[in-house]
Amino acid sequence: MSLYMLPLAIGPWQIALIVIIVLLLFGGKKIPELMRGLGSGIKEFKDASKEEEIEKNDKKE
Question: What are the distances in angstroms from CA 19 to CA 1, 12, 39, 44?
Fold first, then answer.
């Protein structure tokens, strides 16, 4: 593994530490709301990118 890949190598201990920090920062009740917001944002992004692709295909024809 090269030195450039080391920051990307995340193991189970690092993931557990990140989860603990997120729980401490936001609390258990706030996390589902944050995930719902994140999910809806990703869904809107996908829908917008599909619409953009359709518009590009319509202009080609």
Answer: 26, 11, 18, 26
Contacts of 26 (CB under 8 A, 6+ apart): 34
* pTM of this structure: 0.52
Give Cα separations from 23 to 3, 31, 32, 40, 53 (angstroms): 31, 8, 11, 21, 38
- Spell out the long-range contacts of 19-25 with Cβ–Cβ below 8 A and sequence spacing 24 or more: none
Residue 11 amino acid letter: G
pLDDT category of residue 40 using cuts at 50, 70 and 90: very high
CA distance 39 to 29: 17
